[in-house]
């Protein structure tokens, strides 16, 4: 994708919509300001949940009863959602947005890109229709994109992997960001992101003013904590695992996660170590996995690799806490939630030395070059055999993980809502031109 075109969209949005929040030019709202909020929760419709889904879920849970808000409503699909935090199996069509003839038409369309374009178009029309005559709460798009709206808006941008590694993303995702992200960057009064690393990237690569962007890091749920074997045994028994006797990787099977090098490095470990600590892959199937399958299958047949698929939220803490170590040598992460959750459980971690991962891991993990197979292999050996390191990593990991909480994430997000709600909408904001002008603002793949 073309970052220069995105920078142009950002600059145009700052000049025309006057949507920059600058502490030197705007009055800060008092702490008593209690805005109404409208949170887009479509990421919770796509089960099983991945990192962004977990972020939206924890945000929705925290906002519902937050004392800094007057009210919060949730929108997904083409309608209001009564409670997006209900167990996913209990969700009904009524709370997900009605399924009608237009949805049936979308499903009948032959190409995924065309399906997504129609679906997002229907969503925009429905959202605009339901909100055009209502009061104007703060709209928060927690998954990269905003919907057309005349009120204040906040968006969360989780990473710029679609710019750095477009070849690692499905074409339909790139097409959606191509069309919609420049519009979102023009509409947003404020941008949230989940790490200082991504904040710097957004400023440097997209040219966003530092005053328009804040960091609200992800957190670790209280369920992730050290557990003795008797606590993990019921879950691990169901999965055919033994406490402390497996190496865990929690990741969607996609190229950016660098699973191919992890598997190759693991294959090069001494036979006794591989037998003592089989590699357990937890996470959904992704895309572009043909080469990965060729690496996994022989190791799986020999019992050295186990694929669990998606692990439900209630079972994940015991799976993480029971691991002998966690490996996550991704090429690029906006945050790296599995690293944080493993450290909160007192589990030693190996991760990559780039992107946001050193920021999340601090001094508690083994950091390796994710492109260096030998470095990964040597790091895995140390992770599983160096007892002095393992003891120190447990202590440091618990200390580092304690710095990240979901309540702090929600509090920082509410402060941003209060700031943008305190701004007076200018006439130019509600009269902005067609999102396609000036010129062609599409992000070229």
Structure description:
The chain is α/β, with parallel strands linked by helices. The chain has 2 domains: 242 residues, 3-Layer(aba) Sandwich (Rossmann fold); 173 residues, Rossmann fold, CATH 3.40.50.2000. Helices cover 44% and strands 12% of the residues. The protein is built from 19 helices and 13 strands. The strands form 2 sheets. A 7-stranded mixed beta sheet has the order 3-2-1-4-5-6-7, sandwiched between helices. A 6-stranded parallel beta sheet has the order 10-9-8-11-12-13, sandwiched between helices. The chain starts with a helix and ends in a 15-residue tail after the last helix.
Notable traits:
alpha/beta, Rossmann fold, 6-stranded parallel beta sheet, 44% helix, 13 strands, 445 residues, globular
Quick synopsis:
The chain has about 450 residues and is α/β, with parallel strands linked by helices. The protein contains 19 helices and 13 strands.
Percent of residues in helices comes to: 40-55%
Major sheet details: 7 strands, mixed
Mean pLDDT: 83
Report the β-strand fraction as a percent range.
Answer: 5-15%
Strand order of the largest sheet: 3-2-1-4-5-6-7
Can you count the beta strands? 13
What does the radius of gyration come to? 22 Å
User: What is the class of the largest domain in the CATH system?
Assistant: Alpha Beta
The structural class is: alpha/beta
Task: Tell me the number of helical segments per DSSP (H or I, 4 or more residues long).
Answer: 19
Domains (count) = 2
What is the end-to-end distance?
4 Å
Low-confidence stretches: 14-31, 88-103, 424-445
Query: What is the assembly state of the chains in this entry?
Result: single chain
CATH superfamily of the largest domain: Glycogen Phosphorylase B
Give the CA-based shape: globular
CATH architecture descriptor text of the largest domain: 3-Layer(aba) Sandwich
Within the CATH hierarchy, at the fold level, what is the topology of the largest domain? Answer: Rossmann fold
């Amino acid at each position: 994708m073309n970052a220069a075109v995105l920078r142009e969209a950002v600059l145009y949005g700052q000049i025309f919509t006057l949507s920059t929040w600058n502490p030197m030019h705007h009055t800060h709202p008092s702490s008593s300001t209690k805005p109404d909020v409208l949170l887009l929760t479509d990421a919770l419709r796509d089960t099983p949940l991945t990192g962004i889904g977990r972020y939206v879920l924890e945000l929705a849970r925290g906002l519902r009863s937050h004392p800094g808000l007057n009210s919060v409503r949730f929108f997904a699909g083409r309608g209001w959602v009564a409670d997006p935090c209900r167990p996913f199996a209990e969700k009904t069509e009524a709370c997900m947005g009605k399924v009608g003839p237009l949805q049936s038409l979308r499903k009948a369309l032959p190409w995924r890109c065309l399906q997504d374009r129609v679906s997002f178009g229907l969503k925009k029309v429905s959202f605009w229709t339901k909100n055009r005559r209502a009061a104007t709460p703060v709209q928060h798009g927690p998954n990269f994109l905003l919907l057309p709206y005349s009120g204040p808006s906040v968006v969360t941008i989780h990473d710029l992997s679609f710019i750095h590694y477009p070849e690692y993303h499905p074409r339909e995702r790139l097409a959606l960001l191509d069309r919609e992200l420049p519009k979102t960057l023009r509409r947003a009064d404020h941008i949230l992101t989940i790490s200082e690393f991504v904040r710097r990237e957004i400023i440097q690569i997209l040219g966003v003013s530092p005053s328009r962007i804040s960091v609200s890091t992800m957190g670790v749920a209280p369920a992730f904590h050290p557990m003795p074997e008797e606590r993990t045994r019921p879950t691990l028994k169901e999965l055919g695992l033994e406490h402390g006797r497996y190496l865990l990787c929690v990741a969607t099977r996609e190229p950016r996660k660098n699973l191919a090098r992890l598997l190759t490095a693991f294959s090069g470990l001494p036979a006794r170590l591989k037998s003592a600590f089989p590699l357990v892959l937890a996470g959904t199937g992704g895309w572009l996995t043909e080469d990965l399958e060729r690496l996994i299958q022989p190791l799986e047949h020999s019992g050295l690799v186990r694929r669990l698929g998606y692990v439900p939220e209630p079972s994940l803490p015991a799976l993480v806490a029971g691991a002998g170590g966690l490996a996550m040598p991704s090429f690029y992460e906006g945050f790296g939630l599995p690293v944080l959750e493993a450290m909160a459980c007192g589990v030693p971690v190996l991760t990559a030395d780039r992107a946001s991962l050193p920021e999340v891991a601090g001094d508690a993990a083994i950091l390796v070059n994710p492109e260096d197979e030998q470095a990964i292999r040597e790091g895995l050996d140390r992770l599983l055999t160096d007892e002095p390191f393992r003891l120190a990593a447990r202590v440091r990991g618990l200390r580092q993980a304690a710095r990240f909480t979901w309540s702090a994430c929600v509090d920082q997000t509410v402060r941003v809502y209060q700031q943008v709600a305190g701004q007076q909408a200018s006439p130019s904001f509600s009269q902005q031109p067609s999102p396609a002008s000036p010129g062609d603002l599409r992000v070229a793949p």
